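tool=predict chain=A
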Amino acid sequence: MKKRIAIVGYGGQGAWHASWAQKSDVLELAGIYDIREIRMEAARALGIHTYDGGLAEILADKTVDIVLCATPNDVHHDIVCDSLRAGKHVVCEKPVALSVGEFDDMCRAAKESGMCFTVHQNRRWDVDFLGIRSIIRSGEIGEVLNIESHIHGSRGIPSDWRCHKPQGGGMVLDWGVHLIDQMLQLIPEKIVNVSCELFHITNDEVDDGFHLHLVFESGKRACVEVGTYNFLPLPRFYMQCKEGTALIEDWQKKCRIAKLTAWCEKDVTPVQNAAGITKTMAPRDELTLDFYEIDRPTSDVHDFYRNFVRAIDGEEEMLIKQEEVRRVLLVMEACFLSGESHKTLEVSI
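tool=predict ok
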């Protein structure tokens, strides 16, 4: 049986969720509420029911099974906690909270109410991430040494709530929450070192980009970088492994692999480099490397909701676990502390 979902916040992301709910095989859209009347009118124009009485009316509607919180980040806490205590299952947009303490409140409310609560970490369904993950799991180019993850744009930070600190703006909270979550899925080890530089090129109030360096307990390293003033972007993913290298130039491209087949060539011909010659940096060829591409995986982001509905019915474990979300929040808090203090932090996350 389909679950009825009501959406609080009908901006870009809320409207996206509403569109999916209207064509879902597991959801039925009960209606929406937004504090802005213009957004309520936009929903009505599409034939979507609006809750003019706000969140209280949604929570009083016994036909509503799930509340989705798609508001700006600073008001997630009360909406989530009130909905859980009213006996509604809850999905919250990311970042779920502005602090670990706020998130812990939400988790307590979920435990006390016995309701299901998760976070919409939808970027786990991105095909570039899934491609890199498949290579790691296959072991085809060996153990991971270093992974670099970049998202680069060139239009600066958006001029909506994302540029205001009290509302939880900035790129660490906007994009970092996704890329850090992905990285912790790719390297599921304890983090022992965090170093983060926050960028303020177009915005003084919040970070409009950042460069994060993570060191894991085994010595594996990861770089996560978001930029909004990059007119020539770096590759989406670059991964060094013991037996090869993987590269995804952007999220619409296939993954390119260079797999090591032999370490040493008998004779390396020096190449001209700048004002001299070098054997060290001489490029390899097909004698020692196997070059190929892997197809982009298939993905359906609505599997997030299929899983959540089955979790409500006790048929599956939730894919997005609260302890995973909490760990991402801990890393983001360390990002801000490192960036603001200009120090590298020794941690145990």
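The mean pLDDT is 95. The chain has two domains: 3-120, 124-300+330-346.
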